[in-house]
Amino acid sequence: MYEYFCAFIVGIVEGFTEYIPVSSTGHMIIIGHMLGFEGILADLFDVFIQLGAILSVLVVYHNKFTFILNTHHWFRKKGPSVFNLCISMFPACLMGLIFHDFIKNYLFSPTTVIVGLILGGIFMIFAEKIRKGRAFTVTKVDKITTKQAFIIGLFQCLSLWPGFSRSGSTIAGSLLLGISRKAGADFTFIMAVPLMFLACFYDLLKVIGSLSFSDLGVLAVGFATAFVVAYISILWFLKFLNTSTLTGFAVYRFLVAAFAFVYFW
Question: What is the pTM for the complete model shown?
Answer without folding.
Answer: 0.90
